[in-house]
Design goal:
Blueprint lengths: L13 E5 L4 E7 L4 H11 L3 E8 L2 E8 L2 E8 L4 E7 L19 E4 L8 E5 L5 E5 L5 H13 L7 E6 L5 H14 L4 E2 L1 E3 L30 H10 L3 E3 L6 E4 L2 E7 L1 H4 L12 E6 L2 E5 L5 H4 L1 H5 L7 E3 L10 H11 L3 E3 L4 H7 L5 H7 L6 E3 L5 E4 L8 H16 L1 E10 L8 E4 L6 E9 L6 E8 L3 E4 L21 E15 L7 E3 L4
Parallel strand pairs: 9-10, 10-11, 10-12, 12-13, 17-18, 18-19, 19-20
Antiparallel strand pairs: 1-2, 2-6, 3-4, 4-5, 5-6, 7-8, 7-21, 8-9, 14-15, 15-16, 16-17, 22-27, 22-28, 23-26, 23-27, 24-25, 24-27
């Protein structure tokens, strides 16, 4: 590694991290003017400048000395400079030999058993770019193989680049099973990934946490298996760093975020996801994997440069990071088409629709089509949204809301004289905690109580609004006695189901807006 002392100019606000076995990262704040000074410093110390680019609001440089690579990114909006030094860096030796143009490029969102992520991109020369692959399930692996065979025109599939976005089991474990079952049935030219070390407990103390879905599948503990397969088949590997560009066939790929940007920000493994912009078939596709927009600061760093025709919605629509940054990012991307690697049930009934960012996209009239993972879909580029796709999405949203419950429930003919009857069960059929407003109505309008709130943290909650105790929502000083008729209304932004052992709801509304 370089003997240069960084920070070199007396900077006091910076983070320094050993990213993995070969790369070290510095993130320097208050960095105005430092980009050129560091470029000059490296040049004066024997480095050769290989790439240099200036765009509105950001600058990038790549330098080489022997087997070492140095990558600098400066962002004017955040006043930051990021420096990565990588030993044994293969980036400058990267090459891709494209064949003749045979097909229009296309993207296939592979249908998976669960909510993992698997995309097959066929290039104009018939080779493929793969993104992730899904779980280690045989079904995910077989679906990937069958897709490749079906699109290979009877030839042995050639995978020009297999991009593994991050170290979670629903993204890279399929690679392991594919190599175990079908390594001899395809040619894999290159694999691109930037993972933490499998035992990097300093940055990611929960790396070895048991995964309850799949026995003995603690995701990062399988990273050594990845390296073993790569070595066994002598597959060329590259570690993408932010700012780097790779050309694969007719696809231009630029990495906008990587572990470089987030290793010092959060312990959330999703934040290490590679985010990359792909130009293909006269369109731009923004791939985000499970990245949190707020962790990578995409909106601040890139602004309108995020604009894309097609967006892969991050983290299966589950949200990762802060919702406000996610929404700002989506508005900057301004996609006409979205890819959502999640089933229709998960998308519209169980989860995604109730996350602020994903809901923002679902309700946006500018998003003409949202392609969920209910069935396998292939789109040929350049792609235009299907006629009627927006109305179809509206229908799915209404149906999902109705299947989840209702936002407003009213129970009547209750009385304070029978407090034992004033116990309700609130059922939450999403996986998100939801806040519920409880309102009490009496014959005298002045006695109405509209300020009560409770929260359903799990799947269900029993509450007794008037009787006190652990599940009461009425403060003790406001407990009501006597024989006063009343009605109770429950209001929630997320649809819920409210039930009473002896009274049916007098009214409920499933309106989702």
């Amino acid at each position: 590694m370089s003997c240069l002392q960084i920070p070199a100019f007396g900077e006091e606000s910076f983070f320094e991290n050993q990213e993995n076995a070969t790369a070290r990262v510095w993130t320097i704040a208050n960095a105005a003017g430092l980009f050129d000074r560091y470029c000059t410093l490296y040049l004066e110390n024997g480095y050769t400048q290989k790439e240099y680019e200036t765009r509105a609001g950001r600058r990038f440089a790549a330098l080489q000395k022997g087997s070492e690579g140095v990558f600098l990114n400066a962002y004017s909006a955040t006043d930051e400079l990021c420096i990565v030094q990588e030993e044994n860096c293969p980036y400058f030796a990267y090459e891709d030999l494209a064949g003749e143009a045979l097909f229009p490029p296309q993207i296939t969102q592979v249908k998976l058993k669960d909510y993992g992520m698997s995309y097959v991109i066929r290039l104009f020369d018939g080779r493929f770019v793969l993104i992730d692959g899904g779980f280690i399930y045989d079904s995910d692996c077989d679906a990937l193989r069958e897709t490749l065979l079906a699109q290979s025109a009877g030839k042995k599939p050639v995978i020009a680049a297999w991009i593994l976005t991050h170290q979670h089991e629903d993204h890279f474990h399929c690679f392991l099973r594919f190599m175990e079952k079908y390594a001899g049935e395809a040619v894999i030219e290159k694999v691109l990934f930037n993972f933490p070390a499998h035992d990097d407990f300093a940055h990611y103390p929960e790396l070895a946490r048991d995964n309850s879905k799949i026995p003995d599948s603690r995701s990062v503990l399988r990273i050594p298996q990845l390296y073993a397969w790569l070595e066994k088949y002598a597959i060329s590997t590259f570690t993408p760093h932010t700012g780097q560009k790779y050309r694969v066939g007719d696809a231009e790929i630029e990495f906008l975020a990587s572990m470089d940007d987030t290793i010092h920000v959060t312990q959330n493994g999703n934040a290490t996801s590679l985010v990359f912009r792909m130009e293909l078939g006269s369109q731009v596709i923004l791939w985000t994997a499970d990245a949190g927009c707020s962790y990578a600061r995409l909106d601040e760093r890139y602004g309108c440069d995020l604009r894309a025709d097609i967006l892969q919605i991050p983290h299966h629509g589950f949200q990762s990071g802060k919702a406000d940054a996610e929404i700002r990012t989506y508005d900057l991307v301004d996609p006409a088409v979205c890819l959502l690697p999640a089933s229709r049930y998960v998308a519209y009934t169980f989860f995604c629709m109730y996350r602020e960012g994903t809901r923002h996209l679902m309700r946006s009239p500018r998003v003409r089509e949202l392609i969920d993972g209910e069935e396998q879909r292939t789109i040929v580029l350049p792609y235009t949204a299907r006629e009627g796709a927006f109305a179809e999405r509206e229908s799915f949203m209404r149906l999902g809301a109705e299947n989840s419950g209702a936002r407003s429930w009213v129970f009547t003919n209750l009385s304070t004289a029978r407090p034992e009857e004033l116990c309700f069960t609130l059922l939450n059929m999403t996986v998100l905690p939801v806040r519920v407003r409880v309102e009490l109505y009496f014959e005298d309008k002045k006695q109405a109580v509209r300020s009560l709130e409770t929260e359903i943290l799990g799947s269900s909650l029993k509450i007794c609004p008037l009787t006190g105790g652990e599940n009461a929502v009425l403060p003790p000083e406001r407990h009501l006695h006597g024989n006063a008729p009343l009605a109770v209304r429950f209001l929630c932004d997320t649809p819920i189901v409210v039930s009473h052992p002896t009274h049916n709801a007098a009214y409920h509304s499933t309106q989702y807006q």
